[in-house]
Design a protein that fits this description.
- The structure is a single chain.
- The protein is built from 12 helices and 8 strands.
- The protein is of the alpha/beta class.
- Helix 1 runs parallel beside helix 12, helix 5 packs across helix 7 and helix 7 packs parallel to helix 9.
- The structure holds 2-phosphoglycolic acid (PGA).
Length: 253
């Protein structure tokens, strides 16, 4: 039996003011019943973490996550935020390897390894994101790319460390484009990711890791995606900015 949780994470990216962030977090928590068993992770911009944390503080199964952390614990790195700072504001998750970090900030496997080590050292669960571009899929390289992205990073961690991970499959061609992977494409890749985790660790490790789908997941398509046996939930961008849509996604299991 696997111990996988159902998870919905909302990546707000670089959106909202402090006032709007507070209202959105309140609207979400007000709609969700305290007995709802889905793990809900709100991932606002850094300056709103503490306010959102306060808003969710008495709500069961709500957590906050950060969108990034630095490779070092402290020091002269103007403009950066470390994992121990995130821990000190009550952050329990952090996104690592998001395609926007790969594309716009040129982050590489070596950065992800250091960032994940920092996160783990501070009791923060990494949500490690992987995904292929449209060119890589069209040239039939998607399985190869995913294998490389996973292997380069996972081989640096022990089974015990990996047990703290969440994985997120986010095809780059689906992020913010309105084009979603079909449930067949998502299931095929999630099962493949589990097979790679089996190769690196073993089958029980693979059976226990939660793998989220991300990329234009919304209130209309979440149910079909979440029905796939290897899809354990969603990493939601655009649709996490509207309380009604995000809550519908939470209720889609
Ligand atoms: P999207 O973003 O839902 O807006 O496509 C997903 C993500 O980038 O995590």
């Amino acid at each position: 039996m696997s111990s996988r949780k159902k998870i919905v994470a909302g990546n707000w990216k670089m959106n909202k003011s402090l006032q709007e962030a507070k209202i959105l977090a309140e609207q979400i928590t007000n709609q969700v019943n305290e007995f709802d068993e889905v793990t809900k992770i709100i991932i606002p911009p850094f300056p709103f973490l503490e306010t959102v944390k306060q808003t969710i503080s008495n709500k069961p199964n709500f957590y906050i996550g950060a969108q990034n952390c630095h490779t070092n614990s402290s020091g002269a790195f103007t403009g950066e935020v470390s994992a121990n700072m995130l821990h000190s504001v009550g952050c329990e998750y952090v996104l690592i390897g998001h395609s926007e970090r790969r594309q716009y900030f040129k982050e590489k496997d070596a950065d992800f390894i250091l960032k994940i080590k920092e996160a783990l050292k501070n009791n923060i669960h990494p949500i490690f994101c992987i995904g292929e571009t449209i060119h890589e899929r069209k040239t039939d390289n998607h399985f190869k790319v995913i294998t490389e992205q996973l292997t380069a990073v996972l081989k640096e961690f022990s089974v015990e460390e990996f047990s703290k991970f969440i994985l997120a499959y986010e095809p780059v061609w689906a992020i913010g484009t309105g084009e979603t992977a079909t449930s067949a494409q998502a299931q095929e890749m999630h099962a493949f990711i589990r097979s790679i985790v089996t190769d690196i660790f073993d089958s029980s490790v693979a059976a226990n890791v939660s793998i989220l789908y991300g990329g234009s997941c919304n209130a209309q398509n979440a149910q079909e995606l979440f029905r796939c046996p290897d899809v354990d939930g969603g990493l939601i961008g655009g649709a996490s900015l509207k309380a009604d849509d995000f809550c519908k996604i939470i209720f889609s299991f």
